[in-house]
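Question: what's this shape?

___
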Amino acid sequence: MDSVALKERVPWGPKGPLGVLVDPMTWRAVPYLLVSAGVGIGWFVVLSMAVPLSLALAVVWVGVPLGMATVLMWRGGAMLERRLLGAAFGIRIADPYRERPQRGLGRHIQWLLSDPATWKDLGYLLMLLPLGLVETAMSFGLWTATAMLLPQPALLAMKEGAGLRSELIVDNWAGAWALSAAGVALLILTAYFARGMAWLHGTLAMLLLGGSEEERLRASRARGIDAAEAERRRIERDLHDGAQQRLLSVAVDLGRAQAKFDSEPETVRTLIAQAHAGTKAAIAELRNLARGIHPAILSDRGLDAALSGLAARAPIRVDVAVELEERPPAAVESIAYFIVAETLANMAKHSGATEASVTVIRDHRGVVVDVWDNGIGGAVVSPGGGLAGLADRAATIDGVLVLHSPVGGPTIVRAELPCEW
């Protein structure tokens, strides 16, 4: 969940015992959980010294620059945490800070201290101490016990073969295999614990480090308005530089033909032929422009036909399944169409996919659009990028975009579009 309204939820869905052990996400979380107590203690010590010292020295003005440096330090720490959470838990949280002022020391201080995200960052870093103690203590204890129980048969064999003595090794094979089986069960339990703590930690991080839902929606709607204004200017420019110039040329040719109608009939034929060709070219440009604004097939025949047309023009095989008992509102249809169109275009340019699918269903939340491809994955959201623009478009009707694109693929883009807003 992030400030460009593209929400990527914590990818910790339910899995069976084998699935939880082979899922790379489980093992990516383990190192972070083992060291989170050290990170929490470090931040608590630094902040508990820097913040009171800054406040105490503020009366002699020395504390003012020290306080600003402290604020910048913990904001930098929060930014680093967002990146670490992406590597450890597979969640992406964009920096939710307000736009930085162009100049002025006073404005910069106000910008730092009036931004709610600044104080949420501080709350998150202080929260790391109690949460990290629980994560590290439980993780260390469970992994240590697992490491002691699992190899009991091997240790017993070493004892019998080399005459080793150890209090950790049972004296019979039945007991050794029983302890090893208990170690397997504990391994699965520990893996589930790691996933559960990762889900809890990631959820708290998204709440504190990702900004409020209202702020995200306000920002995304503002970007949606900017995008609409940019689109209006693009259409105006395309009309002026394309169809308008061609129609002006047609008018000039027809005027010349009218002037030479009686005296130069052969020239008139040439001019009329040029005007005819120019008219056809202008019509084609207007048709392409109208398709980019709102394709006629979408209005006439709905999403199924419109998305099938997109799939037919794609460079690879794209399966389309639209399961809608009735047509959704026109705004939902339009947004769903352009999300699929942009996603397929990005896929063709960057993913290296050989096949893809588009699924549209209706559930209790509204219309859900899934676009899947088997490409190389690794898609990210960047401000001003195509995916961010799609998320902003969805947010204009309180919809969200969910991205799951691990390195190596596959990539899934899901749009959840409410039919009431």
Notes: The two ends are 20 Å apart (CA to CA).
